[in-house]
Design a protein that fits this description.
- By secondary structure, the protein is α/β, with parallel strands linked by helices.
- It has one domain: Rossmann fold (3-Layer(aba) Sandwich).
- 43% of the residues lie in helices and 17% in strands.
- It is built from eight helices and seven strands, in the order H-E-H-E-H-E-H-E-H-E-H-E-H-H-E.
- The protein has a seven-stranded parallel beta sheet, with helices on both faces.
- Helix 4 runs parallel beside helix 5.
- The longest helix is centred in the middle third of the chain and has 22 residues.
- The termini are far apart.
- Belongs to the short-chain dehydrogenases/reductases (SDR) family.
- It holds the Pfam family adh_short_C2.
- It comes from Mucilaginibacter dorajii.
């Protein structure tokens, strides 16, 4: 009886689908879930990244190339996949940070395609297949609560995601819907920045953050594992930022 009581809080034997799972936070979460005994399925738009990521995951892990800007591609994937337990969405292309006066509006619109609309579409077509006790975990960022100059698009996307989480938690109940809100995390997300700017950003984080270091993908992955395993929190945006919003 004791083991049965603990079973709902385990990822052992659960099927976890990670969109954006071939690199960065998504891959770190796939590894962490697999270590807990989950069967992981990683999704990306890039087959080469999927193949590379699968070499870092346990045997039996699966990976599929899916165009996350295409509604039909997302729908067809989930219709083919069938039932599973947890959806994790961390996908997003590198953002370009610009002051509003220098922002290309058409380019700015495209940043919502994968980060917001891709997540929205994935939830639409994945939610009917989520097993009882399962969950949806999205991604936001501290740019919503603590933006800097040039962060208007990033802040807008993060704010939109956090509002979406609360609305979906109400609409899709009893499926749990939450998000993780990372601060600056040292991943390939920042590769579009010139190297000197990127290193300057990381150095500034080390100097000012309460924990005196830049976050790693593995730090954030632990929050996703928690959100999948816990059974009584929904509509929450969990901050993992080294103290970003406090300084």
């Amino acid at each position: 009886m004791k083991n049965q009581a603990k079973a709902p809080y385990s990822l052992n034997g659960k099927k976890v689908v990670l969109l954006g799972g071939s690199s960065g936070i998504g891959l770190a979460t796939a590894k962490a879930a697999a270590e807990e005994g989950a069967q992981v399925v990683i999704i990306s738009g890039n087959q080469q990244r999927i193949d590379n990521a699968l070499t870092e995951l346990p045997e039996g892990s699966q990976g599929y190339a899916v165009n996350l800007t295409s509604e039909n591609s997302i729908k067809n994937f989930f219709d083919t996949l069938g039932g599973f337990d947890h959806l994790v969405y961390t996908a997003g292309e590198n953002l370009t940070l610009n002051l509003i006066a220098q922002t290309d509006i058409e380019q700015a619109r495209t940043f919502f395609n994968v980060r917001y609309w891709g997540a929205f579409t994935a939830v639409k077509y994945a939610s009917p297949y989520i097993q009882p006790g399962g969950s949806i975990c999205l991604i936001s960022g501290t740019a919503d609560a603590r933006p800097g100059a040039g962060w208007s698009i990033a802040s807008s996307i993060c704010g939109a995601m956090e509002g979406l989480v609360r609305a979906l938690a109400v609409e899709l109940a009893p499926i749990r819907v939450n998000s993780v809100v990372p601060g600056v995390i040292q991943t390939a997300l920042w590769d579009s920045m010139p190297e000197t700017d990127r290193e300057g950003l990381f150095k500034a984080m080390e100097d000012t953050l309460l924990l005196k270091r830049v976050g790693q993908a593995e730090d954030v992955a632990l929050a996703y594992v928690y959100l999948m395993k816990q059974q009584f929190g929904t509509g929450q945006n969990i901050t993992v930022d080294g103290g970003t919003v406090l300084v």
